Amino acid sequence: MRREAATVEVMIRRYCHDHHGGTTELCDECGKLLDYALLRLSKCPFQEGKTTCGKCPVHCYKPGMREKIQEVMRSVGPRMILTNPILSLWHLLDGLRKKPRRRSR
């Protein structure tokens, strides 16, 4: 989960830098998106057994935020292999996991 959070943070920071001229500080919009993404990750019902969010059977993002994070991932994702190869490799491996099943209550 920490690695997933780090990956999302790197992607949002890169997107903000590229699209909003952010330096080390995120703009308000990207800061809110990062806070929201980290909150959603912390509440993920699958935790350590999860696959990547794009392959998850549960979509826990609100529609507007989901569109924003998809835009970030489409923009930054393909270049991650060049800028952050280790995180990219781990993200790829996480995506190979089978879809998790919800725990029985």
Task: Give a written overview of the molecule.
The protein has about 100 residues and is mainly α. The protein has one domain. The protein is built from 4 helices and no strands. It starts with a helix and ends in a 10-residue tail after the last helix.
One letter per element, helices H and strands E, the order comes to HHHH
**What's the total number of strands?**
0
Uncertain segments are none
Instruction: Indicate the radius of gyration in whole angstroms.
Output: 14 Å
Query: Can you tell me the number of structural domains?
Result: 1
What portion of residues belong to β-strands? under 5%
**Number of H/I helices:** 4
The description of the largest β-sheet is: none
Structural class: mainly alpha
Distance between the termini: 22 Å
- Percent helix: 55-70%
- Which term fits the overall shape? globular
Q: Mean pLDDT, rounded to whole units?
A: 81
Short description:
This protein has 105 residues and is an all-alpha fold.
Topology:
Blueprint lengths: L1 H19 L7 H15 L20 H21 L1 H11 L10
Name a few traits of the molecule:
single chain; 105 residues; mainly alpha; 4 helices; 63% helix
